[in-house]
Amino acid sequence: MRPVNLLLIIGLVSIITLTGCKKDEYMTEATITGWDQRYCQCCGGLQINFQNEIKPYSGDFYDLTNSASSLGLSDTVSTFPIYMYVNWTHPSTIACPNIITITKYERL
Has residue 54 been placed in a domain? Predict the structure, then answer.
């Protein structure tokens, strides 16, 4: 095999490998601020905030449909805030605009 062909093959394999391994660029920085203790149809669960607020019920916060254990946390978590990168979605089956589901997370 000629050296030019070998270099071309190595270059193509390198490009394919490097473009296939990229970090998820769409994760949003978020802060889990605590438990929502209110009693209402659109309340309860963990609270999350995307505006660097660290106090519960501050700023524009959302309640999570996720359990604490599904986010790698203990169900008796008492130390807040918890900082994460998250991907999230609003479940279409829930009529509450302040409830979201974390689809992917990475703890900071």
Answer: yes
User: How many structural domains are present in the chain?
Assistant: 1
Report yes or no on 91 lying in a domain.
yes
Question: Which residue in the block uniquely carries the two structure tokens 């394919």?
Answer: 16
Domain that holds residue 57: 23-107
Partners of residue 5 on adjacent β-strands: none
Which pTM was predicted? 0.71
Residue 17 inside a domain? The answer is no
Contact at 8 Å (CB) between 46 and 34? yes
Residue 2 lies in a domain: no
| 79-108 residues labelled b (16+ CB within 10 A) or e (exposed) | eebbebebebeeeeeeeeeebbbbeebeee
Task: Give the C-alpha separation, 52 to 76, whole Å.
Answer: 23
pLDDT digits (tens, 9 = 90+) for 53-85: 999 998 889 999 999 999 988 877 778 999 999
CA distance 61 to 86: 14
72, two tokens? 């790698």
